[in-house]
């Protein structure tokens, strides 16, 4: 009887230790680029921009070995968004912040883990009021939209992987509170992402 009790205790301890070693969470830091498309409205407004480069911090909690919930915070350094309102040209230097959440579905092929994700996002467009901004009537603007993406992670060790991903951010074209910039159109912002994740 004592041997059976000892065996049960050893098995329970082994299961607990295995669960303790199983990675249920990860955090990643990535470099990003926001590429906003050219947009022409049904009115006289046209919008174009330069790419914005920045960083993305992500946290994932594994619900199962192949599904997770993800929370993201991203920020860019700056880019220039140009508005053509016939016959005038305006430039707004912008810093963009992203706060998003997503459901992530992964597929495991040895060390390769392709994944897809989707969820809601909020984007904060922050005008930088310096000499690069040609109109100072602009204001901070927050827009709500959606996130979708697909990528692949390569496991370089049990604790680390390298990730590359394409993310799409769908949101309204910003106006910065200036009615003459109104397009009534939606952006599909492309965001390539490359980074490193730590599992714990």
Keywords:
single chain, 200 residues, mainly beta, Porin, eight-stranded antiparallel barrel, 1 helix, 62% strand
CATH first level: which class?
Mainly Beta
- SS summary, helix count: 1
Number of domains: 1
Structural class: mainly beta
Outline the structure in words.
By secondary structure, the chain is mostly beta strands. It has one domain (23-199): Porin. The chain has 1 helix and 11 strands. An 8-stranded antiparallel beta barrel has the order 1-4-5-7-8-9-10-11. The radius of gyration is 22 Å and the shape is elongated. The two termini are 38 Å apart.
Layout: helices, strands, pairs:
Blueprint (H helix, E strand, L loop, with lengths): L1 H20 L3 E10 L4 E2 L4 E5 L2 E13 L2 E10 L2 E7 L2 E19 L5 E16 L13 E15 L4 E13 L13 E14 L1
Antiparallel strand pairs: 1-4, 1-11, 2-3, 3-6, 4-5, 5-7, 6-7, 7-8, 8-9, 9-10, 10-11
């Amino acid at each position: 009887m004592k041997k059976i009790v000892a065996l049960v205790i050893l098995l329970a301890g082994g299961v607990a230790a295995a669960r303790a070693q199983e990675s249920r969470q990860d955090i990643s830091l990535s470099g990003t680029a926001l590429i906003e498309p050219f947009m022409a409205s049904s009115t006289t407004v046209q919008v174009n921009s330069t790419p914005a480069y920045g960083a993305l911090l992500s946290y994932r909690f594994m619900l199962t070995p192949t599904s997770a919930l993800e929370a993201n915070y991203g920020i860019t350094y700056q880019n220039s968004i140009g508005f053509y309102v016939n016959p005038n040209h305006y430039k707004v230097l912008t810093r963009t912040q992203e706060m998003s959440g997503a459901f992530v579905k992964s597929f495991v092929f040895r060390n390769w883990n392709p994944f897809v994700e989707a969820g809601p996002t909020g984007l904060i467009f922050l005008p930088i009021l310096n000499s690069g901004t040609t109109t100072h009537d602009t204001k901070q603007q927050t827009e709500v939209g959606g996130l979708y993406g697909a990528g692949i992670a390569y496991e370089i060790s049990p604790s680390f992987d390298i990730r590359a991903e394409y993310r799409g951010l769908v949101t309204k074209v910003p106006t910065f509170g200036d009615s003459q910039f109104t397009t009534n159109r939606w952006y599909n912002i492309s965001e390539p992402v490359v980074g490193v994740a730590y599992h714990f």
